[in-house]
Design brief:
The complex is a heterodimer of chains A (299) and B (255).
Chain A: E1 5-16, E2 19-30, E3 34-39, H1 45-52, E4 60-65, E5 68-69, H2 73-81, E6 83-86, H3 98-106, H4 114-123, H5 137-149, E7 155-159, H6 167-183, E8 187-192, H7 195-201, E9 204-209, E10 212-218, H8 219-225, E11 227-232, E12 247-253, E13 256-261, H9 266-272, E14 279-284, H10 287-298
Parallel strand pairs in A: 3-8, 3-9, 6-7, 7-8
Antiparallel strand pairs in A: 1-2, 1-4, 4-5, 9-10, 11-13, 11-14, 12-13
Helix pairs in contact in A: 4-5, 5-6
Chain B: H1 2-44, H2 49-61, H3 65-90, H4 103-107, H5 113-142, H6 152-179, H7 184-203, H8 212-217, H9 219-224, H10 229-252
Helix pairs in contact in B: 1-2, 1-3, 1-5, 2-3, 3-5, 3-6, 3-7, 5-6, 5-10, 6-7, 6-10
The chains are: A alpha/beta (299), B mainly alpha (255).
Chain lengths: 299, 255
């Protein structure tokens, strides 16, 4: 694996009929991490995943998985051999039964884990003889997860794994992902627009907006780096031009000036001190705030 | 497992086609005694023009069992049904959204697109070969039942002509299925092409020496005992070219 990254993209671009879905997406997912790929609908999450799995070809740029080029047919087959994938719509073969679906998928994977297959069949309470088209959305998601988990994969790519699920099944699915990854040495790359679930299970995050990665890094590192500096003035808050690197967004609201920093508070505090604020407060920010502020900044 | 999925995707179309062709072969053989009784009546009908020519030709050909089988079945029912089912077998596929499955699951499997399409093509062609050979092989087996004889060699030659020519329509439908994501456009366009070619051959009989339906029915072999090598070769080349184009089209496609 190149440089310890399971997924690497560099200046990845994809245009569909003149519409730019990806605009120079550069991303690195460390091996062994659970990386949440966070973004609004239409931000480019699914397009990125399709390129990584060889389902779509990049217009330009580079995409590598396990160090293999994703846009070349033969390496792409090897990538898929080592990757478990669950699509957003949980695409499966409706005409097959659960058991047929398992046997069909098993045939492609030499490292198929029968023990995991049996464990998840029981844990998810999946009816082996039922046709896939007769499964509820929750059951369908669980079957898709079983098929992805049992492949003996080194990487799981999950595209909005909990979309359309009720809160109970969502929790079950997230717990299943976490407990599976805890037992196996693998990486997980999952897209979502649910900040809560990324916060719950991911240790890395990449926020994508308009086809570009706006923020990326370890979740703990982001929480350390990102903070909000609240300054209260005895007059209308000034409109400062801050030159310190890392300023994500500045907001003025009456006497209050709020600065979101992505590179700690020290440099900004030094820069705003001459403005003479009455009080200065540095508060931690949540992933939700980072996401929302990043997205708004891009707007 | 791709073979298994490919079989699952096409088996209903294949089995329906096979049953219809077998029934049509059975009907053709066992109806012959009735036809023999009608031949004197056909000779007494006075009709001019193309209609008269066809009646006289039909009556003349039907005076022998071999001629009757060719004129009534191989030239008409068999070629029409084989064309229709060749198109039906070619339309849709493992990556097609037409089959009710999204393509993404198939695409997430560790198999190249070339391999998946290749398996799909071979499965369809094998089914088409079975549809071409099984009904014709029934002719020598069943003809003693009506006191007639039909040569096994003739049956196999006609089956081979039928398969090679019908494979062109199969390949066309498969190619169109890599261009369009729905089932209907490949079906309608391929059927439209078949109808246009059939009309061309019907209207310009003199210039249709190498027409695909003439090759499919084995007319040259029936009339002269010689295989239509040029027509068979052209059909095979056209099929191969369309299948190759299908693989290239699929390789470039985004899902």
């Amino acid at each position: 694996m190149a440089d310890g990254f399971v997924i690497e993209t560099a200046d990845l671009r994809k245009t569909y009929d003149g519409v730019e879905a990806l605009r120079g997406l550069t991303l690195q997912v460390p091996a062994g991490s659970i990386c949440g790929f966070l973004g609004r609908n239409g931000a480019g999450k699914t397009t990125t995943i399709k390129i990584l799995l060889g389902m779509a070809r990049p217009t330009s740029g580079r995409a590598r998985v396990f160090g293999l080029p994703a846009d070349r047919p033969e390496p792409s087959v090897e990538i898929r051999r080592r990757t478990g994938f669950v699509s957003e719509d949980k695409d499966l073969y409706d005409g097959m039964t659960v058991d047929e679906m398992i046997r069909y998928t098993r045939g492609f994977y030499p490292r198929w884990r029968v023990d995991l297959e049996q464990r998840y069949l029981r844990a998810f309470d999946l009816p082996a003889a039922r046709k896939v088209k007769a499964l509820s959305r929750g059951m369908r998601t669980k079957l898709a997860l079983l098929l992805a988990f049992s492949r003996g994969a080194d990487l799981l790519i999950l595209d909005e794994p909990t979309s359309g699920l009720d809160p109970v099944v969502t929790e079950e699915v997230l717990q299943a992902i976490v407990s599976h990854v805890a037992r196996a040495e693998m990486s997980v790359f999952f897209s979502s627009h649910q900040i809560g679930e990324v916060d719950q299970i991911a240790d890395h995050v990449a926020i994508v907006e308009r086809g570009q990665v706006a923020v990326a890094g370890g979740l703990d590192d982001l929480r350390e780096r990102y903070c909000r500096i609240q300054l209260v003035f005895d007059r209308e808050a000034p409109e400062p031009v801050l030159r310190t690197p890392g300023v994500v967004r500045i907001r003025r609201d009456g006497r209050v000036l709020s600065v979101l920093s992505g590179a700690g508070a020290a440099g900004i505090l030094d820069e705003v001190r001459p403005l003479g604020p009455l009080s200065t407060e540095v508060v931690p920010v949540t992933l939700k705030e980072i996401f929302l502020e990043t997205v708004k900044a891009e707007d | 497992m791709i073979w298994y999925k490919s079989w699952l995707d096409t088996r209903s179309r294949f089995l329906v086609g096979l049953v219809l062709l077998v029934l049509s072969a059975l009907g053709t053989v066992f109806y012959y005694p009735q036809v023999l009784k009608l031949i004197p009546m056909a000779n007494s009908i006075e009709a001019s023009g193309e209609l008269g020519r066809r009646i006289r030709e039909g009556a003349q050909l039907s005076s022998s069992f071999r001629g009757y089988v060719w004129a009534q079945w191989m030239r008409q029912a068999m070629t029409n049904l084989a064309t229709l089912f060749a198109v039906l077998l070619g339309a849709g596929g493992l990556f097609s959204r037409a089959s009710g499955d999204s393509a993404l699951y198939a695409l997430s499997m560790p198999a190249s697109r070339d391999r998946v399409l290749g398996v799909r093509a071979v499965t369809g062609l094998a089914e088409l070969a079975a549809m071409a050979v099984i009904p014709v092989i029934l002719l020598p087996l069943l003809s003693p039942g009506v006191g007639e004889h039909y040569s096994v060699v003739d049956a196999l030659v006609h089956g081979a002509c039928l398969f090679v020519a019908a494979a062109t329509f199969f390949s066309l439908a498969l190619l169109l299925s890599t261009v369009f994501t729905d089932l209907w456009r490949p079906l309608l366009i391929a059927c439209g092409v078949a109808i246009a070619m059939s009309l061309y051959e019907a209207v310009l009989r003199g210039q249709s020496r190498y027409g695909i339906f003439r090759v499919m029915s084995g007319e040259d072999y029936f009339r002269t005992g010689h295989l239509p090598w040029l027509g068979l070769f052209a059909s095979a080349i056209a099929s191969a070219a369309m299948l190759y184009t299908a693989t290239r089209t699929l390789a470039r496609q985004d899902f």
